[in-house]
Amino acid sequence: MASSVKESSDSFDYDLFTIGAGSGGVRASRMSAAAGGRVAICEMPFSTKASDSAGGAGGTCVIRGCVPKKLLVYGSSYATSFQDAKGFEWELDTEPRHHWGKLIAKKNAEINRLTGIYQKLLGGAGVEYIEGRGKIVGPNEVEVNGKVYTARNILISTGGRVSVPDLPGVEHVISSDDALELPELPKSMAIVGSGYIALEFACIFNAMGVETHVFYRQPLPLRGFDEEVRQFLYEQMVEKGIHMHPNESPEAVEKKADDAYVLKTASGGSHEVGKVMFATGRKPNVNNLGLETVGVEMAQNGAVKVDPYSKTTAEGIWAIGDVTDRINLTPVALMEGMAICETLFKNNPTKADHTEVPCAVFTQPPVSCVGMTEEEAIAEFGDVDVYTSNFRPMKHTISGSGERCLMKLIVHPTTDKVVGVHIVGDEAGEIMQGIAIAVRMGATKHDFDRTIGIHPTAAEELVTMRTVTRQVRKEAKAVAS
Fold this sequence. Notes:
Number of helices: 12
Number of strands: 23
Shape: globular
Mean pLDDT: 95
Structural class: alpha/beta
Radius of gyration: 24 Å
Oligomer: single chain
Largest sheet: 7 strands, mixed
Low-confidence stretches: 1-8
Distance between the termini: 54 Å
């Protein structure tokens, strides 16, 4: 399938040329160079907001995604901590004040530091870093800044870009890129969308004191996640004071003043707020890459079609990460990048493994899961045992907060294998990383039961749930215990 380093010849400038220095592209390039390949990578000049002419080493995750978003999650979470402290008899003589602009400046300083580190890592690995927009101009040929480079293999890792619907007044809305750069907070915000980006920003702004409204078409937010988790998170967000507007579709946005916009919905609603943010999805970043000139087939949504080895329909051209629209998570892109290195430079053809991928949504409280939802398990197995624990964490018995925690295990009754784990609660992602190892290794409910809990923690609930909440059987409805 692949060319090994030994087969490399001087007829090409490089063994691998990567277009896009996001997480996946950087990992594939570094590891391939370490394996002996001659590797180059190109990326557009740095900017905190992506465009056809700007990007930056580190890509979406580092510059305008996971990392800056998580920094704002950390910053906003202190608002809750101040409130919780009062329940533990801390006296706050003055109300805490926050300086949003200073936080954004610190965030940007950290992003600049990280993007610099990415370039140093590439250089240290022997990867040539070329700043500029890459375009495939022929088989084994990439043009950057008017110069054509040749490569035995070309890797597309250009990620995704913000996508907003074409509605009247869409020029007045902000995106997640813009939200990370707001110079000051509005008094109120309407967020359209109910995916993880929309909900994370809703929680950030709400905690910062912004009157926050979330509008979405579905009955519940976070489509694709476990239904019970979706319902629980909805209730927790309402408890936090976020105004949720289900079954609402945007129709238009009107500007009344610099700090006054009206969001109109299909139901006839009219909502005036200080800012309108659309978090309605992302699209593969394939514009002007020249893919059509070399026979790279695209999916209907613009994603690059690849086989299980991340090979496109064009010989010598590969693609990983969000541009392929498989599982759009940074660690998945890293895994796909490692597989590319194994395939091309270690004579070990390796498929990208998208099974049992854990994930987290950094809402407040956060959500994390691994494996199947209850609905997926029922569809695949028919027979399913479900264990749940819905409780008030010890911290909040005194803090005065109404926040609760949900933990859920989904078990295949015939094999006793735990096929899904779901958590909504503090540090859900930190807990789930360890649980994901167990699930991937095929842990059974008995393995969970015989594991000693760590007390007192919320996580110990995962190994102390003995009574099944409900049993679903092919020939019968769910039976509650």
